[in-house]
Amino acid sequence: MSAMPQKGDLAQETEIVWLEDPMRLDYVRQALDKVNTRRGKPRYERDGRLIGYSNLEPEAPRRIDSGLFARRIFYLLPHDRPNRPSDPDCPYNVGSPLEAVDPRTVGAGQVGRKTARSQGTPDSVPAGS
Length: 129
Known about the structure:
This protein is mostly beta strands. The chain has one helix at about 115-120; strands at about 1-5, 15-20, 30-35, 50-55, 70-75, 100.
């Protein structure tokens, strides 16, 4: 499963673990995945790279439909702007994918949101600044 998280999906989150410094990235993609553990680095089977993930409370329930846990992952695909900051042909020089959020707006239990920075608009701060 990979879906856009809603606030109610995140009630059992205790922390966000970043594998890379999120302050250096304009945006990250977020998805809600079904996994078999509450904590620890989940399996990542997409192109690109895993940037972070959420850990859940020890008592977080399994999903009734699958018997798995719903946890957020944060990732980037090879063609994303944070991977290609000076490439004029990058498809997201301005704007960002639907599931992208500014990592500075993410917290345990907080969905995250788009900002001028994540959209790459002229009033945003370049990555790494």
